[in-house]
């Protein structure tokens, strides 16, 4: 009924269709699994840092001298969603920043120079894949 060429062509179509369906189901696609970038930006200078949220046009300025503690919170939800957060306790309240926010490389570089910085706690936090919290700066002020 079918010749060898027709059978091979049908088999190829079935394999391509199955492969595409499996790839769409099991392989992550960055455009749908990563958080949208650019909503939160952190700007760092010598005396303070500014966190600006573009969604609600809110800006917070925190002086380095006013920081009491910075805790890194880790979750087990990564790697396709942010699974690390910096919780900052300061003289005027508290603020939590996701590690994926713009400018966080500069923020991280600056907190390593604060009094009370714990390099080992940061190293442990950065490698953690569980729900946990680590005090990386304590009594900076």
Describe this structure in words.
- This protein is an alpha+beta fold and 141 residues long.
- It folds into two domains: 33 residues; 104 residues.
- It has four helices and seven strands.
- It is elongated.
- It starts with a helix and ends with a strand.
- About 13% of the residues have low confidence.
- Number of helical regions: 4
- Overall tally of structural domains: 2
Widest sheet, order of strands: 6-5-4-7
Structural class: alpha+beta
CA-based shape = elongated
* Biggest sheet layout: 4 strands, antiparallel
Q: End-to-end span in angstroms?
A: 84 Å
Low-confidence stretches: 20-37
Helical fraction equals 25-40%
Content of β-strand: 25-35%
Helix and strand pattern: HHEEEEEEHHE
Radius of gyration: 23 Å
Question: What is the assembly state of the chains in this entry?
Answer: single chain
Q: What is the residue-mean pLDDT, rounded to a whole number? A: 78
Strands, total number: 7
């Amino acid at each position: 009924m079918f010749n060898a060429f027709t059978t091979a062509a049908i088999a190829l179509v079935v394999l391509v269709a199955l492969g595409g369906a499996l790839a769409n189901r099991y392989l992550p696609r960055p455009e749908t699994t990563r958080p949208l970038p650019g909503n939160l930006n952190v700007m760092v200078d010598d005396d303070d840092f500014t966190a600006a949220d573009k969604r609600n046009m809110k800006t917070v300025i925190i002086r380095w001298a006013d920081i009491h503690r910075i805790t890194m919170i880790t979750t087990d939800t990564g790697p396709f969603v942010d699974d690390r957060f910096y919780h900052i306790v300061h003289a005027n309240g508290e603020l939590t920043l996701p590690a994926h926010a713009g400018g966080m490389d500069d923020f991280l570089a600056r907190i390593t120079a604060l009094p009370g910085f714990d390099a080992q706690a940061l190293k442990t936090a950065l490698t953690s894949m569980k729900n946990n919290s680590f005090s990386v700066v304590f009594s900076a002020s």
